[in-house]
């Protein structure tokens, strides 16, 4: 906790030289048309140029709401009164005879959208882009802002910005905005009424280490560091693209990343948990405890890549993304939701097969998870089927899903594999798995043909599902929810069953 306090002090107690005698202003990511976090949280705002040790007058809709004193560096900060959803509002700050204002401010939920190129994938690359933009414009309560690429070897107090807060429109800003981020908001808006503020901060091709603070990295084993400064180095994007916005009160975050870590997947389970925990703690601290220390965090489980059989890398990352449970939320990753995307290959994508165009499906699945986990809406079935019981007799293994409570749909007999050995204690390696096709299925079960385990290695020591980089054709993996069309996620299970 002491490290967090020191960190925040470093953000706000900037050098006196930098801000002395400056005109009062808001930090650069507080602008007209923005969304601030609604009640019950209080929106935290700050700026610079206040007369040193003199009160700054903060007014909202004509009423004085706070008179904080600027510190020795001319930095001022304030928690606005908890404000219900809606608007527009006007917020002004006066110091030393100068007043600056923010107009057309809405209060709603603020979401961070981060990761690498599939989160950065632009709206204008979506097939029905025009119709989606029309929908976003008709909603009338979306606001978007995009941060610029900024790799730094130390944290900065304000981010670089591509464009400031605005409503979606038929313009280059919306063209270049994150498709997953905006479509996620469109999907949410069908079920929630509050304004949604979407903050895009991402960089294609970057690993999780770049988005993690030094404290998060210290919690896990690390690879050898390089010396040069580029966007792939540890903490450089955290420093330039996450740390500056920590003081802003937010509601949650969504994340699409992992492809860049597929070559070294064994560290990702620790790294992902550590980054989520660290972001939560630092957003909470820097917002004066207004951002929840357990804020909702959603992610996209990796989509397919190459049209060939590859059993390592991507499947290992998918498993690590769930902290090796196979599902979220779970005891390790609490208040976390995901969109399963392994059944959405796009081998003909003009941007390359690692960039599938089916961002609408991904965003819709992600929004379902947000409704169930982040918003706690009842009767939202946001997860695909997951195995809860295994029974093995002779050359047959039966797997029951969801404790028999939800019907499944089977679309192909392929996708399951077993590991064989002389006993159940056989250690299953990365190789040596053999196909175990579905021989029959019931409303909530599949039965596998395990006759491939025979002779001296006649015992099934492990079973796994969809353990390939690209496990199936489009929406044609083996198991889906009957009523939801949501795919069952990949899993691996070793004996005893």
From TrEMBL:
Residues 109-308 form the Sialate O-acetylesterase domain. Pfam families: SASA (PF03629). Residues 1-22 form the signal peptide. GO terms for molecular function: sialate O-acetylesterase activity. It comes from the Eukaryota. Coiled coil: none annotated. InterPro entries: SASA (IPR005181), SGNH_hydro_sf (IPR036514), SIAE (IPR039329). One of its GO terms (biological process) is carbohydrate metabolic process. Gene3D superfamilies: SGNH hydrolase. Keywords: Hydrolase, Signal. This is Sialate O-acetylesterase domain-containing protein. It comes from Dreissena polymorpha (Zebra mussel).
């Amino acid at each position: 906790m002491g490290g967090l306090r020191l960190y925040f002090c470093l953000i706000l107690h900037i050098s006196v030289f930098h801000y002395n005698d400056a005109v009062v202003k808001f930090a650069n990511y507080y602008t007209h048309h923005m969304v601030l976090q609604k009640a019950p949280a209080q929106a935290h705002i700050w700026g610079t140029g206040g007369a040193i040790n003199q009160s700054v007058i903060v007014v909202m809709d004509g009423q004085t709401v706070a008179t904080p004193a600027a510190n020795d560096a001319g930095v001022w900060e304030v928690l606005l009164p908890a404000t219900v959803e809606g608007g527009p509002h006007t917020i002004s700050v006066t110091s030393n005879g100068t007043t600056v204002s923010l107009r057309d401010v809405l209060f709603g939920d603020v979401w961070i959208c981060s990761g690498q190129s599939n989160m950065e994938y632009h709206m204008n690359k979506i097939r029905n882009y025009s119709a989606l933009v029309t929908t976003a414009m008709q909603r009338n309560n979306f606001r978007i802002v995009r941060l610029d690429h900024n790799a730094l070897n130390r944290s900065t107090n304000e981010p670089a910005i591509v464009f400031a807060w605005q409503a979606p429109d038929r313009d280059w800003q919306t063209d270049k905005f994150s498709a997953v981020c905006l479509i996620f908001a469109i999907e949410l808006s069908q079920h929630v009424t509050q304004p949604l503020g979407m903050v895009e901060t991402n960089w294609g091709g970057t690993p999780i280490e770049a988005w993690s603070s030094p404290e998060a990295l210290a919690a896990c084993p690390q690879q050898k560091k390089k010396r040069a400064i580029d966007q792939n180095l540890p903490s450089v994007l955290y420093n330039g693209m996450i740390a500056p916005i920590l003081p802003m009160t937010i509601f949650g975050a969504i994340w699409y990343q992992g492809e860049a870590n597929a070559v070294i997947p064994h560290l990702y389970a620790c790294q992902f948990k550590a980054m989520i925990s660290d972001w939560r703690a630092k957003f909470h601290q820097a917002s004066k405890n207004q951002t929840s220390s357990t804020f909702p965090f959603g992610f996209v489980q990796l989509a397919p890549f190459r049209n060939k059989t590859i059993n390592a890398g991507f499947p290992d990352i998918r498993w690590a993304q769930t902290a090796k449970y196979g599902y979220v939320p779970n005891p390790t990753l609490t208040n976390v939701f995901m969109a399963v995307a392994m059944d959405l290959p796009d081998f003909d994508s003009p941007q390359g097969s690692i960039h599938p165009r089916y961002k609408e499906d991904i965003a819709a699945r992600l929004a379902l998870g947000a409704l169930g986990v982040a918003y706690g809406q009842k009767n939202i079935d946001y997860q695909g089927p997951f195995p809860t019981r295994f029974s093995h007799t002779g050359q047959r293994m039966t797997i029951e899903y969801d404790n028999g409570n939800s019907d499944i749909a089977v679309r192909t007999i392929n996708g399951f594999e077993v590991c064989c050995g002389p006993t159940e204690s056989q250690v299953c390696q990365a190789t040596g798995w053999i196909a175990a096709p579905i021989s029959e299925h019931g409303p909530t079960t599949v039965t596998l043909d395990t006759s491939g385990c025979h002779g001296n290695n006649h015992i099934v020591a492990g079973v796994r599902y969809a353990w390939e980089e690209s496990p199936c054709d489009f929406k044609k993996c083996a198991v889906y929810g009957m009523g939801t069309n949501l795919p069952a996620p990949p899993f691996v299970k070793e004996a005893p069953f």
